[in-house]
Sequence to fold (264 residues):
Amino acid sequence: MKSLVALSMLFFIGPAAAAADVEAGKAKVAAVCAACHGANGVSVADAIPNLAGQKPAYLEAQLRALKDGSRKNPVMNAIASQLSPDDIGNVAAYFATQSGATSTAKSDFLPNLAKTSVKFPEGYQATFRKYHTINFPATKQVRYYFANDAALSAAKNGKPLPDGSVLFAEVYSTKNGADGQPLTGADGFFVPDQLLFYTAMAREAGWGKEIPDMLRNEDWNYAAFTTGKQLRPVNQAECLACHKPLDKVSYTFTLDQLTAAAKR
Fold:
C-alpha cells in the first residue's frame, strides 16, 4: 500500500527533477550573465534588472520564455537560446542564493567586455563610403552609416566581412516641429540637428579571444565615441548579444544595404 501511495505521489508531482547545481550556475553566471546582471545578481545599469534573491521558479520561467521566444528581448533571446535546461535551473538556483540588492547598488562591467580594440577611424569622411541612413523615432535620432574598403569589397563579392572591416555611424538628434516630433526631409529621413556621438564595429584577428563563446561574434568588437572622438564607456556584452543571432550576415543588421551600396 505504501508503495502505491509513493507511486501515486510521483504521478501527480511529475518526474523528479535533478537537484540544481549552484556551483555550475555560479560558473555560468561568471562567464556570461555577470556581464549585465553582475556576478552576484546586482546589475551593471539601471535599465537591467537585479536578479539576486529572486525566486528560482520565477527565474526559470522567464529564462524558458526567453529561450523559446514567447518573451521578446533581442539581447536575452540570443543568450537564453544557448542555455540548456540544466543551465537554466543552475543559474536560477545560484541567483536565488544571493542577497537582494539595494536600489542604488551597481556592479562593474566585466573587464574583458568593458574594453574594446576599436579605434576612432580618423579621416573616415574621405576614405569610407556612406551606405545607409536610419530614422530612430523612439529616441528622436537619425544615424548615418559608413563602411571602409575592406567591408565594401567583401560585400560587393558576396563574401563574409573579413578582418580589417569597419562599420561606423554618426548619431544625430533631430530637428523637431512645434508638436515636438522630428521633421522629415524630402528624402524621407529625419532632419539632423546636433551630432550626439559615434558608434563603430570592427574586427581584427584575435579580437574575440577573451570574449565568452556565448557572446562572441567571431572577432568583432564594438565601441562608442564622444563628439570629441574619445571612447565612451560601453558594455560590449549588450552589443555582442544583440548581434549574436546575425552570424549568417557577418553579425551586422545592415549587410543588405552595404551590399547594394558596394555594387553601385
